[in-house]
Every structure is written in C-alpha cells, then in structure tokens.
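Hi support team,

I've been running sequence recovery on a batch of backbones for a student project. Most finish fine, but this one hangs at about 90% for roughly twenty minutes before it completes. I'm not sure whether the input is malformed or the queue is just slow. I've pasted the structure tokens below so you can try to reproduce it. Let me know if you need the job ID as well.

Thanks,
M.K.
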C-alpha cells in the first residue's frame, strides 16, 4: 500500500510559509525587557509633557506668543477642553473616560508584547494619554472637566495654520502611526510576522 507524497519543493515551500506566517520571532526578546521598554518610553513622554506644561504655564500664560526656531513654531498657551489638536471640544468628561480606557487596554496588553516596535508605539500612546488625562483630572474647572494645556502652534500663533497641540498629542500621534505602520507590515504585537504566501511556481 502506497501514499502519494507532495513534491519536495512544494513541501519545503509550505513549511517555510507556515513558519514565517505564524511563528513568533524568537529574536524579539523577553517580555520583561519589552515591559521595561514600554513603560520607560511612556515615563519619558509623560515627564516631558508634564515639565513643558508646567514651564509654559508659569512663564508664558497670559503673555504674547513667543516665536521659536525661526518661526517654525510659536509658543502660544491655550486651554483646550477637547481632544488632541483641539478637536471635540465640549466632550471633556467623555474624553477623560476614553483616555482611562486606553490606558487600561495598554496595561492589559503589555505582558503579551513580544515586539520592540509595538512596545515603543504603545509606550508613546500610553505616555501621551496619561499626560492629557492628568490635565483633565487635576486642572480647572474640575475632575474629568479639566482643560488640557496646549502651547505648540505651527508656523503661526493661535493655531492659524494647524491646531495648537502639546507634547502628549505628539506622542499619541507618533505612537499611533508606528503601530499602524507595523500592522501594515504584517508585524503583530505578539511578535508574529505575517508574510504573503508564495505563489506556486507551477500551476
């Protein structure tokens, strides 16, 4: 009794595809290192956001905009009740709850990370979300209603060219872009790398 075996080259190709599309890359490192990377990036982003906000409120609030980098940016302190880049004003409490949910999801996902790129991306989002959440919780007019401090105005004061933003907004945006890019490249948070199946050499 005999069984039909696939050609060796087809078997090798199928094994290679299966390995490349489903097996996590062992070189991605342990979860402990990636947890340190994620929370280290988040702490750095949060610290930079908090320090810059304290400085501009203390030194610049109520004063005319300050031109920096040859007019590339203007330091123009505004209080924003909305989301990143002054969007969704009037929904401060909802945005605060959403930020709390985002932080919770990232913390829950953190132990499952096996990708340094995802750790950096989610760390940026986490740091930015915590930075703006702190404003909404602790700044006037009150908890869940606090207005976020924005102070970076691109090319012109008062957000004439682009909405005024802050370091936290930049962290969230850069982290989100990195996560989307990794997803488009087929790299998952758990280290899995998806590649397109090779086309059969012969029909």
């Amino acid at each position: 009794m005999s069984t039909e075996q696939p050609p060796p080259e087809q078997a090798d190709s199928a094994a290679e595809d299966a390995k490349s599309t489903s097996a996590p890359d062992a070189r991605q490192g342990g979860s402990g290192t990636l947890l340190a990377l994620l929370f280290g990036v988040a702490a750095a982003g949060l610290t930079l956001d908090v320090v810059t906000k304290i400085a501009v409120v203390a030194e610049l609030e109520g004063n005319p905009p300050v031109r920096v980098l040859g007019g590339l940016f203007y330091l123009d302190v505004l209080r924003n009740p909305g989301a990143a880049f002054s969007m969704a004003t009037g929904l401060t409490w909802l945005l605060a709850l959403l930020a709390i949910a985002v932080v919770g999801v990232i913390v829950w996902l953190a132990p499952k990370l096996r990708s340094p790129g995802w750790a950096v991306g989610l760390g940026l989002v986490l740091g930015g979300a915590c930075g703006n959440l702190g404003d909404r919780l602790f700044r006037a007019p009150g908890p869940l209603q606090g207005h976020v401090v924005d102070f970076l105005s691109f090319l012109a004061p008062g957000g004439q060219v682009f909405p005024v933003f802050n370091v936290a907004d930049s962290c969230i945006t850069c982290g989100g872009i990195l996560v989307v890019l990794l997803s488009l490249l087929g790299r998952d948070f758990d280290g899995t790398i998806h590649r397109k199946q090779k086309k059969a050499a012969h029909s």
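--
Follow-up from support: It reproduced on our side and the slowdown came from queue contention, not your input. The first helix runs from residue 8 to 22. No action needed from you.
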